[in-house]
Amino acid sequence: MLGVVTALWGLTAWGQEPADAEIIVYGDALSPWQDTRWLVASETIDLDSPMLLLLEGEQVWAPAWQAEAVLRCTVEKKRGVGGVVRCTIEDAAVRVVTYNQWQRPRDRRMVNTMLTRARAKMLSSALRLRVRDSGTVTIAKEQPERSGLTALLLGPAISAFHLELPSDGWQDGRHWNTFEEPLLTLHVAEGTFGFETGSHYANLFEGRYLIQTLAGTMRKVVTGLRTQDGRDVPGATSARKNGIWEGYDEVQARFLPEEGAGSPTIEVTMQGELELHAVADFDPKLRGVRERVWTVQGSGATSILRSGRLRRLKENEGVRLGPTTQVSPPNRPRQGFVPWVTLQDSAP
Known about the structure:
The protein is mainly beta. Helix content is 11%, strand content 41%.
């Protein structure tokens, strides 16, 4: 099993035997999916863009959440270019941190009841994936009924199946660049991060091809408004939240004054950056990924932290997922709540 991303990066990025043999990596892009089982897991901490979970008239805002699932996949349809894979959910678990729905017993019961129902909906649903001849994977637009929640919770992990390799093999046995990395395509408070260049490194390590990815992207984030004479516009901050772990949520939304009201305004911006570190265990015989772990870290005006893993399972391999419940915030224990355990620390 792959370990912590940063440790593997330091271990294999330099000085290991390069994968210098030419390997044809594209064949039948659907064959690695036929009758396979996968463990997929994703966790997100995003104070600027909390997840809104809506279910049967109740709602929960979650600035931190985790989702795990065991998928059983099979090829549903072959097309001229790739095809469609259908994955049913054998097991699932969902955990969330809430802003203030943890203090009163009735709120705690409501949140846990919602999560139990969310898990039940996942277990009764399926997920359709679009696989292209290049091997790239995306969630198909057409989903089976009752699969919207599953796509929402597992979408970040499904993005990790996308590992763009050179179409004619690893000719230099070492390094190549790509211009598309779905793990960096994140919707955050004031916009969307798009694709940027990623660098990939291939190494032979203990008989496996380890492919390491380092990628980054950046954009400007609006943090407020200021008049041309230098005065800040009151309340014009960008989704700024204070004291969320103490159980209350203070949100101030950016606004533009009415036309003609006061001095003209200018937007105050900061730079937000995302950096991706990922390691994949690539099997050239399968022409696909056996395992991948990753971390996306935001900095500057972007506070997001996202990580996850996926791993191909043996046919009868059992996996014990974590509980489905409301948990304490990371590094902030709440009495009576299960602690937040990172996916890296809880890897089965």
